Amino acid sequence: AQSVTQLGSHVSVSEGALVLLRCNYSSSVPPYLFWYVQYPNQGLQLLLKYTTGATLVKGINGFEAEFKKSETSFHLTKPSAHMSDAAEYFCAVSGEGYSTLTFGKGTMLLVSP
Amino acid sequence: DAGVIQSPRHEVTEMGQEVTLRCKPISGHNSLFWYRQTMMRGLELLIYFNNNVPIDDSGMPEDRFSAKMPNASFSTLKIQPSEPRDSAVYFCASSPDSGNTIYFGEGSWLTVV
User: Fold this and answer.
1) Chain A residues within 8 A of B105 when measuring between CB atoms
2) Smallest Cα–Cα separation from B48: which of B36, B60, B57?
3) DSSP for residue B25
4) Cβ-contact A90, A5 below 8 angstroms
5) What is the pLDDT of residue B88?
6) What are the chain B neighbours of A32 within 8 Å (beta carbons)?
């Protein structure tokens, strides 16, 4: 069984500030981990993913995430927020033997000037 | 490159009517997924096809819902009869690697009144 917990349904930051969106997972197999972003009235777009190898993963738009097995975490970060980053972010887990993603509830990122 | 194409983008229908949502996956992808997104329940997997064969339909809410994939380039999700609680955004997604990386369509916004 797999599950994802995203801490905080809403996160507010100022433009230029650090973005940190938290994701913890549970998986009975080595996990594959994903972050997706959803802009208003649009579908989900893949930001980055971890399957195997390097635990620090870089994605699009300056985002990165680090897989920490000991903490069962895959937090998403960006050094400096931009107004255009305002969107909903979803963490998801899959894994070898699983062909489907289990999504978290999502975190809405609000960016103020 | 064309992404996952869904139609209609928006549909408003009366309770009891049949609703058919359509999806064209990305060419060459071997897996197709239907997800439903609501405020209350977040993103839920409804059904998953691999090589046009339904693999997991445990997420289909009830017999009113049915999905088909007659060929590799087309899938439908049908609701008959529709009910107001079916109002949601329905996403189709496809994958080239059996779910390792999933690409989403823009979604079909369904309102049942």
Assistant:
1) 43
2) B57
3) P
4) no
5) 97
6) 100
CB B34 within 8 A of CB B86: no
* Confidence class for position A97, pLDDT limits 50, 70, 90: low
Please count the other Cβ atoms lying within 10 Å of the Cβ belonging to residue B41: 10
- Model pLDDT, residue A52: 86
Amino acid code (one letter) for A59 = G
Q: What is the pLDDT of residues A52-86, one digit of tens each?
A: 889 999 999 999 999 999 999 999 999 999 999 99
Backbone angles phi and psi of A51, in degrees to 5: -120, -65
Closest Cα in chain B, distance from residue A45 (Å):
7
Phi and psi at residue A85, in whole multiples of 5°? -80, -10
**What are the chain A neighbours of B43 within 8 Å (beta carbons)?**
44, 90, 103, 106
Q: What is the pLDDT of residues B46-76, one digit of tens each?
A: 999 999 999 989 899 889 999 999 999 999 9
Residue type, position B97, single letter: D
List residues in chain A touching B: CB distance below 8 A: 32, 36, 41-46, 49, 51, 90, 94, 98-106
Number of Cβ within 10 Å of residue A7's Cβ equals: 14
Residue ranges in chain B whose pLDDT is less than 50? none
Given an 8 Å threshold on Cβ–Cβ distance, is B43 in contact with A103?
yes
All residues at 6 or more sequence positions from B9 whose CB lies less than 8 Å from its CB, including other chains: B106, B107, B108, B109
